[in-house]
Records
---
Amino acid sequence: MSYKDVLVHLDESGRSPQRLDFAIDFARSFDAHLSALYVVQIPFLPFVAEAEASAQIIEAQLERARDLKDKAKADFDRRAASAGISIEWRETEGDAIDTTTMHARHSDIAILGQPNPEEGFSASPRNLPQVVALSAGRPVLVLPYAGSYRSVGERVLVAWNASREAARAVNDALPILKRSKQVTVLAINPKKGTDGHGQVPSADISTHLARHGVKAIAAQTVAPDEDVGDVILSRAADEGADLIVMGCYGHSRLHELVLGGASRDLFAHMTVPVLLAH
């Protein structure tokens, strides 16, 4: 198993060029095809007194968005010329969430960025990574808006809660985990037994990973009074992890997002890239 078809979502945010650099390096490391997707969102004005004024505002916003898209395309063409991999540009106009979700379903993994709240809503919807992770049926690798990241996977923390979502995330992350120098599988407040983590939390999944050639360390911690997301981030810092792998629990219906507590905390406070699967 390997990643042979990688998607990266680009937009007008300040971190988009760095996201493209990361995606090029990531795709090159797996000898994969890289597709860059840019969605020009159709402006929405909930209320404007005059229809003519509304049309003029929308057209002006669209013109600006198309100009930014063209600049991103020119930057992509310049970088793609020396990428040394199979690469393509995709552009469209419409709903960023629905479009990105559709394209992610036709890829092995999608690389998205954590929206920067200081950039407002113009770049991409703030819930784009969450909804794509819950809806695409493919793993999503989310890069934080703060910090610099050109590679991931040397030291990985797997947040393991013995759920379907966590099992899916571990399986989807295997191409990365097989290359890792160290993988820590962390069970937080584990429940033993057949309806939980088994007799030794994290041991069974670590053994499974070892059969795939993954150097996995089984670990567990009990912190009932702390937020699970905070525990994961704290342990990632202690381990020097450059990637967190976890299942994304929740559901999305008509873009109304309901996330589980750990997923919600990670999206809000992520300090390293996170690979999510649902």
---
Amino acid sequence: MRPDTAGFAADLKVGSYGGQQVLVWWEGDNNAGIGSGEHVIMDASYRVITRIAAANGRKADLHELQLTDHGTALFLADAPVGPSPAVGRLPALPRVMDCAIQEIDLATGQLVLEWHGVDHIGIDESVTAAPTGSDQVYDYLHANSIEEDADGDLLVSARNTSAIYKIGPDDGRDPVAAGRQARRLQDGPGTSFALQHDARRQPDGTLSLFDDGQAPGHSRAISCVSTSRR
């Protein structure tokens, strides 16, 4: 046993790094469910191998870290941006939370990909009410999991839109500069869900997730066959 840092620790799990099993977790500050920190990788002897920091002045969020088979790390890096113009039922807002996905090369620390939710998913897709205070940030998306799909796309769960998105390449421009398009996945018959977490592709092709549910519903784990739409 050893003490962690003075901040919060979350998302402890086993991963694979450099051909060996490792422990990974997140450390930092927790602000109403949005993390501001970095990820830690520790070897089997409980020695810290490396820490993974976000790029471009951002901080790593607490919800997700995926160590890929090609030597990179995928994680969320949220930051408030604004102002946001009026869209549909929503008035103009001073600030919204931009849920960004970053992919970092673990050997070099270089940014491989950066995708911004505010560039691809409208704030009017949110199922949560916008704040009324001028100093509050609207966390309209609240992404909470990333999964590499079999075709190379990314599966991303966004709690506050009650949706899972399949994010694939756009028109071939530099992905760091251009990001990727997002297609919203529809749930199959009998598999309606809300406020979900941990969207994962299973070996048989089905998609599993933790359905947080909405009152008077109940939380549950479900598996469904997904289809996509623009």
---
Amino acid sequence: MGQLFAALEYLHSKQISHRDIKPQNFMIYKPNDLSCIKMIDFGLSKDYSQGQVMHTLSGSPYYMAPEVFLQNYNSKIDIWSMGVVLYIMLSGKVPFPGRTEPEIIYNVIKGDFHFDYSAFNAISSECKDFIKKCLIREYEQRYSATEALADPWIQKHFQKQAPNHLKEGTIGENGVSQ
């Protein structure tokens, strides 16, 4: 998660929002090596340098922030989606379930979720607190990528350093092969 939030911090510093954060859009750089996770599929990404507010309905409903459905949002939608991803990774459940797309959308907009699944019994309160800060319904109060990286739970488990393949010069800092 630290690597992915670092990628988001970089994207957001360049005023780009990914807008389609979901597990399918992450790749492991080398088989069986979690030291380098890549964020992929920038087909829905948006340069918002001309204005902080975006309006296009885009993404996958389970991972979309409530404000996307209102078509008035900023880059913090990526933080919401990362919170959903982490919740799913830890529990195997979606935080905002539904049997139909309208039911899913209703539950996302409502923004109520819980940690009542048995999988969360083994999860630290710091991690649950981190998820809560990513899934705050009011985006003004939601973490930014920089704030997420500074969270004690992330700091405890993530050291921001260049993976070995960056040090060797085979991949540039922007993730492009050189």
